[in-house]
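Weekend entry, working from home. Most of the wet-lab plans are on hold until the incubator is repaired, so I used the time to fold the two sequences that have been sitting in the queue since the last round of cloning. Logging both here for the record. First:
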Amino acid sequence: HRKYSWVNVMSRCHAGCAEVDSLTEAVAGEGFLLGCISCKRREEVSARATVDWHFKPQQEEDFRHIFHYDHPAAAVLHEDFSDRLEWQGTLNGDVQIGAVYIQNVTFNDTGTYRCTFHRTLFLPLQLENVVVEKEVELTVVAVANRELTAVISEIVMYVLIVVLQLWLIVVMVHCYRKIWDEHEAREARRALKAQGLLLGSKENCDGVQAE
């Protein structure tokens, strides 16, 4: 499966930073990208940010610190995610994309993930510290569920195919009946013409005999 990168997506976006919600359903045994984007209010202001990820397993009360990024260093902080988390966010100190990639997802990864930006804005007169938190409710399934829109689109496609086939049959039947009616009319005209010729010949014969 191809790894999805927020960095690649954002680098192709000429309109600037755009906050997009993370996907929320992962498939066991596959990789999954936990998305987290926090855009600066003013793009022209220089800044530096660190990102922390915390995880609260399903049916537990407390979050556990699992990942920390302070450019250029990335650190996995919990043994359950050892060798399974990879930074997929901004590759400089002014972090706006804080995505991490989970390798080999398990059912134990189901739960709530909290992404926290600690950002320092270098304003002309002073520094401003900003904290932004976002949460992702992740569900792990055995098989990927199909998107409802994809299912609806497929149903509509099949319905259209059936309707078009029925319409084609109706058109073919109509054309066949029209051709057959024209054939019958042509044969009837020929029969009338032949009958008229036959009657004319008979009248000529009767006239000759009378003379």
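Second, folded right after the first finished:
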Amino acid sequence: MGERRGPPWTDMVEAAFYLCAYEFAIKTVNSPWCRLFDEVDAQVMEYALDLKQFWKRAYGYEINSKSSCILFHDMFSRLDKALNEHNSGQKVTEAVTIQVGHAETLLPLLALLGFFKDSEPLTSINYASQTQRSFRTSRMLPYAANFILVLYDCGGGDIRLQPLVNEQPVAFPGVTDRQESMPLYGDVRRHYEELLKGCDFETVCELFKNPAEV
């Protein structure tokens, strides 16, 4: 099925807003297109774009974030391997791993991990109550957006994991009551235990079961 769209004029408004945003972001100039919008207009357009991403690639539907199952498992597999090599006294074979993708890759992963999740979902009728929302893609996914995980050995078997979004420390949602930005690695694994044991991409995306299995 194709994506639902509004009247033709809504596409024109969105295009004008994008032209304003792109020229400002890339050229740092106040584009003539920006004169079509005041601050309130811009906030409404921002919310409309957030609403689209929320339901298409994030918390709107569970399957959105489950599309990152393979990346999720790969991420923890690499962390486990580095930690096992370090604990056994071996040289860590992959001290740094860099994976490059798109915003459409990063957003489902952040949602799978629970980052930037508000208490109430974004909808078309609660704009007024969402002015302080955490889910704001202009901040989550700017140009060159990135997600970094750093393992630290603090001595005495105290292994900690620090997440950073766009080079800024963040806290794993629900891992610690104190919302530490660098919790114990074991606590992080326990928090995501169900996903680590499941979150199978083939199972999640299976459309039809074998008749013998039904």
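Plan for Monday: verify the second prediction. Strands lie at 147-153, 159-165, 168-169.
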